[in-house]
Sequence to fold (604 residues):
Amino acid sequence: MLIDIKHNFLLIYNNSVNWFMLKMNYRPFVNILKLTILQIFILSNIISADVRYVSKTGTSQFPYTSWETAADSIPKCIKACNNGDTIYVANGIYKDSLYIDKEISLIGSSMDSTIIDGTGLGYVTIEIQAKTTIKYFTIYGLALNSGRGLRCYQPLNISLCKISNCGAGISTIGVPCIMNNVIIINSGVGFDGGCISDTCNYFITNSMIVLSSNGSFGIGTNLGGNYFINNNILIYFGTNPDYGISLDWPHRAELSNNLVSGYSVGIYFDTIEDSGFVKNNIVAHNTYCGIAIGSTRENIENTMIISNPTGILSLLSQEVSHNSNYNIFWNNNIDLHGLIVHGDSDWVADPMFMKDTYPNPQLDFDYHLQAFSPGINKGNPSILNKDLSRSDIGMYGGFLGETYKYDDLAPKPPRNLSAVIDSLITIKWDKNTEADTSYYNIYRDTIPGFTIDPSKGISRQKDTSFVQLLLHNTRHLYYKLTAEDKTGHVSAPSAELTVTLNSIGNNYSVINDYHLYQNYPNPFNPTTTISYQLKEKSYAKLMVYDITGRLIKVLANETKESGYYETDFNAKGLASGIYLYRIEVIGKGNIPVFSDMKKCVLIK
Fold:
């Protein structure tokens, strides 16, 4: 009613002013007066919007327009609102399910301590039936894997909130959504949306979705709409994941500067009506493939595809018409599968992250690039970093990325030392993958567990093998290596290689002993590498126990050839503390030949 009165007043007054100005021949002032009247009209609307309050300590006196008279529940305050009102909510736990049918802004006092708790209540904790803005809340759903945190039938703008214990954190029903700086955890689905209209836009930015429930997916969409998914972290750490980001028949999609890890498929595109852009992302450690594409309209560039069984899987059935380009592939079983080929500017190289541990809920990883990384300034030349240099490859490159200092770290210790003997002793090891590795320093002693120092150095070289004469009257030799980069940074020592020489007449043979090495890193959170060495083909069983002796996990349980082996132990879901790992080796004739046990420390 108030809006109608204002509209009629404005119409009558506007017509009167026009008539008066025409009579008085003051045409130049007509537009000025119209603008002034419009400003008065807008101001009157702003003035009519009320601010209301909710608090556990207020007197709950209608219309709740001060902290002293604040409503004692959020639904009571919503009922008192008109379109355009703002509700401020004091810290506290509000055991409510909300039905918002008016255009309001709902503002909490703190994301950590202003809590809307729908546990055990209705299927939906907050139902949106009118355009709504929500900030600074923790929102609990009905139960883990059940119900919806927010279900939206009208546009939602949500920021700086945490959503937990839901079947789905946010579900939108054919309406646009802005989601910024939102954390979604302990839910079956992070964001579930869809909109038939090609003008319906979804902005999902600067948010974190960390899931572990059976069959969870991070962001799922279907049928139309435009999706702008930027600067997010999506991690799954359960046992049966679904998709990280699944875009099913979108009109347009832009995915940039995201980390997607631990899902079955990191990013999935079905048919795209207009275009899809995947740029400056990291897609890592997914269990089936990093990216799966279903049309020729996806553009994948400036992205790191790391440690997936398949890097990019093409679902195309026509002739090859899609290239990967300006991407880095590393440690995938297969980089590309199907009708897709490498572009001229793709790299297969160690990206040289600052800390390349497995992504985890504690965010104990750092995917910024080291100095000398092959990803620095190697992206598409048409895409720039924030400092206007050519884009880096990875989640911190591009204009939505970061400007930061590239630290120069020491290389990792050399790995997989082995020895063979003919008339000479030949020591071999794996080549370091860091682009700036320059030399290897070789140390030797006749005492096990020796500490390296210059007096024990016997060679410095670029190659990954070292040859020396046999040392007579010496039964045991022990070797360690360090790697050195082009700026002089030196790695920690490698695991120690033991060589035992047996002399039979004038012939010599070499025996690489059985060995269980100390895990690295240690302490760790939540992933560490355990390595061991087998002298000959044996049956090896590697197990992890808690401090009470309870078996936690079996890391290896099979027959292996002689050689050096590494396996990762992921302690997600385990409490901080001391754990034990033990190896048992069964040799020929089913006879135990080696056993050892060491401690490792998990710190969260």
Notes: The chain is about 10% helix and 45% strand. The two ends are 59 Å apart (CA to CA). Residues 281 and 395 are 4 Å apart (CA to CA). The first strand starts at residue 51 and ends at 54.
